Amino acid sequence: MRVRGWLLVVLCVVATPAQAGFDSTQLRNALTALTAHPGSGRLGVAVRDLEDGSTVLIDAKRPFPMQSVYKLPIAIALLDRVDRGRIALSKTVHLTQAQRAPGRSPLAKQIGPEGLDRTIEQLLELMMIESDNTACDVLLDEVGGPAAVQAVLLLKSLYGVRVDRPEKQLQSDWQGLGHWRAALYEDRVREAAIEALPPQRRQIAIDAYLRDPRDTTTPQGMMDMLARLAAGELLSADSTTRLLHLMTVSVTGLNKIKAGLPQDWALAHKSGASGEAFGLAPAENDVGIATAPDGRRIVIVALLSASRLNSEARDKMLADVARATIAALR
């Protein structure tokens, strides 16, 4: 009888749910209020307390265009190959001017007529710290292209995240420029080509981009990826540490989630943004793992699409997601 009583106590303890990590009602109400402003756009949020697994989701199964957030799954696929001994971080890659990508790319400006040599490790650092588009496209080729990245994600049971195009083609598509050609790297050529497009064609391209399932993530899919990365389930211990460090020292998106966290919190994150056309921003994103001084870790995914707010207001909305999350913690 005493044994049965002891077992009953144990079973009761195991069955008792842990205290929720968030005041879910408070957080849901705060997140819903963020989109009340006319023209704010579609906001997808996924938040998880990695201490107890408690989760809050807002429009979390809808695919959102990632923009540069998609450099995170590319980095995971690359480091998976490193872990398997299929590629070395010390490998040198010779870069040519034909590989230059538009948008943010300090690397592209360094590539002269004779080309430039960089190691895989240096390219990874540029991609994750500077969000360098040229480094991203080169590493995507080194991994084996989008299909190879997608294969890694599927093998790791990561769903709801898609990588389909290099940066060069992705940016060309949403701007209505069609198939990428090297001449479009030059700002004046690209801007003139965009200016020459009929407004209707540009609008069609934007609308198509917002409906396109390629290079998108659901908030829940990205949250699961980050939670498993933090748990060390996707990569070796060395590669996990390396990637999280690069995400922590990233110099982009500092006015987004990071701006909404207390100053003594750390953030390993990847941001992404499309820019604007006709007063509309197809994508403004930030995703990451926030760490409190006591070691408590919170995954925060904030994806904003089709917003007509200005750049500062879009950044503030993503920062407000973080503020609301911290305020709702128990």
TrEMBL record:
UniProt keyword terms in alphabetical order: Signal
Reaction equations catalysed: a beta-lactam + H2O = a substituted beta-amino acid
Domain (Beta-lactamase class A catalytic): residue spans on this chain: 44-303
Gene Ontology molecular function, alphabetical: beta-lactamase activity
Enzyme class of the recorded protein, top EC level: hydrolase
Signal peptide span: 1-20
Highest taxon above the source species: Bacteria
Keyword check for Signal: yes
SUPFAM superfamilies: beta-lactamase/transpeptidase-like
EC number(s) reported in the record: 3.5.2.6
Pfam families: Beta-lactamase2
Biological processes per GO annotation: beta-lactam antibiotic catabolic process; response to antibiotic
UniProt family annotation: Belongs to the class-A beta-lactamase family.
NCBIfam families: bla_class_A
Annotated protein name in UniProt: beta-lactamase
Origin species: Roseiterribacter gracilis
Lineage, broadest ranks: Bacteria, Pseudomonadati, Pseudomonadota, Alphaproteobacteria, Rhodospirillales
